[in-house]
C-alpha cells in the first residue's frame, strides 16, 4: 500500500517495498529475488526484520532504488551492502577482497576439529591471501590466546582486513601486511591457513557475472591449471611451519587429489579433508612428515 505525505509524495511501507522489489528482481531474472529484496530493504533501513508497517523515508526510497538498479545489473547483494557475515561475525568488503562465503567455513571447522586440545594455547597463526581477514579473524575468535598475521598481495585488502579485525575486537591480536605469500617471513607458525586463488585462468570468463565482474581477478586466478599457489605452498611452507604445526588449505572442485599430490612432494602428510555444505571436499589438512 502506498501512502501520501502532505506534499503529495507517494511513500511505501517496508513490507510493500520488499514485495515490489522482489517482483522486480524476479522479472529481471534473479533466482533469489525474495531473499535479495529482504536483505536490500533491511540494508536501507538499517535493521533486521523491520516493522512491516514502517514507512520508508524519501532518502531510504532513493537509496533502495540505487540498490535495485545495481542488483539488476548483476552485482551481488553483499557487494551492494558492503558487508557479509562469516562465522557469525561481520566483515566489510572492498573491491580488493572476495566475499566471505559459507563454504569457506569448512576451513575453520577443520581447524577446530584438529586442535580441540589447543583452544587455550598461545598459537601463532599465518593466513596467506587473507582478503577480508575472515579466516584469521574467525580462528582467533575461537582461540582466545592465539595471535595471527595475515598477508595479501593487495595493500587495499590488508587495510580492509585490519579494519575487520578492529570491527570484531581483535586488532590487538591480528596484524596484516602486504606481501607475496611467505616472502620475507623469518619466523615459524603453529597454524597456516589459506584460501588461495584456484580458478583456472581460462575459466574465469565463463564464471557467473556476479563473480567475473565483481570479484577481484587477483583473488581468483590460480594459473593455467588453478594449482599455481599450491606449488608455492609445497615448496615454501616447510620453512615457516613450526614443529607439530598444521596447514589447512581451501581447494576448488575436483582439486583434492592434485593438491594432496603436490603437498606430498613437498614433504607433507595429508591428515584428511573437511567437506563443504554441498558435500564436496573443501578444506585439506596437512602436517610435515
Task: Describe the model.
By secondary structure, the chain is of the alpha/beta class. It has two domains: about 80 residues, Helicase, Ruva Protein, domain 3; about 200 residues, Vaccinia Virus protein VP39 (Rossmann fold, 3-Layer(aba) Sandwich), CATH 3.40.50.150. Helices cover about 35% and strands about 20% of the residues. The protein has a seven-stranded mixed beta sheet with strand order 7-6-5-8-9-11-10, with helices on both faces. A two-stranded antiparallel ribbon has the order 1-2. A two-stranded antiparallel sheet has the order 3-4. Helix 1 packs across helix 2 and helix 2 runs antiparallel to helix 3. It is elongated. The relative contact order is 0.11.
Could you list some keywords that capture this structure?
about 290 residues; alpha/beta; Helicase, Ruva Protein, domain 3; Rossmann fold; 2 domains; seven-stranded mixed sheet; 10 helices; about 35% helix; elongated
The low-pLDDT segments are 4-8
Count the DSSP helices.
Answer: 10
Order of strands side by side in the largest beta sheet? 7-6-5-8-9-11-10
Q: Mind summarizing the main beta sheet? A: 7 strands, mixed
Give the arrangement of secondary structure elements:
Elements: E1 2-4, E2 10-12, H1 14-27, H2 33-45, H3 58-72, H4 77-81, E3 83-86, E4 89-92, H5 105-114, E5 124-128, H6 134-142, E6 147-152, H7 155-167, E7 174-178, E8 189-194, H8 209-212, H9 228-236, E9 241-250, H10 256-265, E10 268-275, E11 281-288
Parallel strand pairs: 5-6, 5-8, 6-7, 8-9
Antiparallel strand pairs: 1-2, 3-4, 9-11, 10-11
Helix pairs in contact: 1-2, 2-3, 5-6, 9-10
Amino acid at each position: 500500500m502506498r501512502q501520501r505525505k502532505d506534499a503529495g509524495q507517494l511513500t511505501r511501507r517496508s513490507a510493500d517495498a520488499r514485495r515490489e522489489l522482489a517482483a522486480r528482481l524476479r522479472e529481471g531474472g534473479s533466482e533469489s529475488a525474495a531473499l535479495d529484496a529482504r536483505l536490500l530493504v533491511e540494508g536501507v533501513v538499517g535493521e533486521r526484520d523491520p516493522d512491516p508497517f514502517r514507512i520508508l523515508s524519501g532518502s531510504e526510497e532513493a537509496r533502495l532504488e540505487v540498490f535495485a538498479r545495481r542488483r539488476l545489473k548483476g552485482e551481488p547483494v553483499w557487494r551492494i551492502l558492503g558487508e557479509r557475515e562469516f562465522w557469525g561475525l561481520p566483515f566489510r568488503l572492498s573491491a580488493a577482497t572476495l566475499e566471505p562465503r559459507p563454504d569457506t567455513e569448512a576451513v575453520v571447522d577443520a581447524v577446530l576439529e584438529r586442535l580441540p586440545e589447543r583452544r587455550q594455547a598461545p598459537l601463532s597463526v599465518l593466513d596467506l591471501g587473507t582478503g577480508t581477514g575472515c579466516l584469521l579473524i574467525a580462528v582467533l575468535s575461537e582461540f582466545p590466546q592465539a595471535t595471527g598475521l595475515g598477508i595479501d598481495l593487495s595493500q587495499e585488502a590488508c587495510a580492509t582486513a585490519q579494519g575487520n579485525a578492529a570491527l570484531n575486537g581483535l586488532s590487538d591480536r591480528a596484524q596484516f601486511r602486504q606481501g607475496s605469500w611467505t616472502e620475507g617471513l623469518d619466523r615459524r607458525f603453529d597454524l597456516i591457513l589459506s584460501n588461495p586463488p584456484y580458478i583456472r585462468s581460462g575459466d574465469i570468463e565463463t564464471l557467473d557475472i556476479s563473480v567475473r565482474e565483481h570479484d577481484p581477478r587477483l583473488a581468483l586466478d590460480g594459473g593455467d591449471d588453478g594449482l599455481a599457489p599450491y606449488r608455492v605452498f609445497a615448496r615454501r611452507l616447510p620453512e615457516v611451519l613450526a614443529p607439530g604445526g598444521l596447514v589447512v588449505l581451501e581447494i576448488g572442485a575436483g582439486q583434492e587429489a592434485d593438491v594432496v599430490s603436490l603437498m606430498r612432494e613437498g614433504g607433507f602428510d595429508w591428515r584428511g579433508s573437511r567437506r563443504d555444505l554441498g558435500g564436496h571436499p573443501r578444506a585439506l589438512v596437512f602436517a610435515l612428515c
